[in-house]
Predict the 3D structure of the following.
Amino acid sequence: MHKQRFTLLMVAIAACCSLTMTGCFQSTGPTLGIFSIPIPVSPYWQKNYEDKFHIQERYARVPILGPITSGNIVALDPPSDDEVWWALERARPTQGGIPFLHETQRNNITFVKEKIADYVDPPRVIPLIGPAQLHHAHYKCTAYFSERKIVGWPFPHTLIDEDCQEVLYLDHNHFHMCGNLDFGPATSNY
């Protein structure tokens, strides 16, 4: 009887040891202990961080270009469809609905982009850049789409609006370097 209890106890200890020595606990040497167990992250939060990185990487920075050489100054880069899509998603979000409860979908999207203004500020000294001119380009972007709202509770139904439109105003700003500036006579207030 004692031998059977001892064998059962040894099997239980071996089982506990084998369960705790799997996965992240197999390594020898210094470990993080309980903090080395991975914590699952919701896809919602992961997508939020990926979206923030996407916007920061592509659209949140102001580029610094070379000097303006000709008299005709024209911005050559209208907003891309991806940039207009992200601006539309920030204005009227469709992501983040609850499946089978409330969802919104956009289909047949068409973007129309019009340049409103294109001008350059006079040269000035900008910290961390030096003498530069800020080039502004303002665009009016109209998105035409059909919107479908699926409601699943309390009474399941689908609402379809075929003629939706949203107007977005996007600004493209970038710097042009300039040199040999003459800001007039130097004055002193001493």
Observations:
- The chain has a mean pLDDT of 84.
- Residues 56-68+75-182 form one domain.
- The longest strand covers residues 130-151.
